[in-house]
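Q: Predict the bound structure with magnesium ion.
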Amino acid sequence: MEYDQSVIVPESYKVLISEEEIQKRLQELGEQITRDFKGKTPILIGILNGSFIFLADLIRYINTDLEVDFIRISSYGNGRESSGHIKILKPLSADINGRSVLVVEDIVDSGLSVQFLRKMLEAFNPVELKFVTLLNKPEKKKVDVSIDYVGFDIEDKFVVGYGLDDGQMKRNLRSIYYIEQE
Ligand code: IMP
Ligand code: MG
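A: Predicted complex:
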């Protein structure tokens, strides 16, 4: 049964990726990740806040033992443009030395966060360090980063919902929306 969220969806929001499309793609990503990490008991590291819903859904499509941890970084404040200045607001708790690690991002925009995270996590000597992102904006790259698993390549539009916020709100929307400029 479809769940109606229209009361919290402003008129300027247009569906970019529906709830059903997201779940279908997550199943495919989960199958691929299951194959690649079979028998390795990976640690999945979610990047807070944006990736919490993606991570929660994705791990339920991964059929191998795994652990979960979180890092919180901030580069945006409450604005819609990257400040380019990255701070660690919550460090890693798990010991990833000698482990297979899969970093879970909501969206890769300039690539600066991924570049920062890769450098920071490599210092802990994981045996393997891969990245999965639900969304990727190929046009916006300021640095060359390689992402191992991409849910959807999207245009350069500000998107919200499914964990992604608009001024800290709208994370609870089930689909992903772009905001139509008035
Ligand atoms: P990057 O360092 O520029 O690649 O930025 C990555 C981070 O910026 C993501 O993890 C998001 O938290 C945030 N971000 C980038 N684009 C959007 C967007 O369209 N909507 C919401 N958050 C975004
Ligand atoms: Mg993020």
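A: The pocket of magnesium ion (ligand 2) is lined by residues 47, 50, 105-106 (CB under 6 Å).
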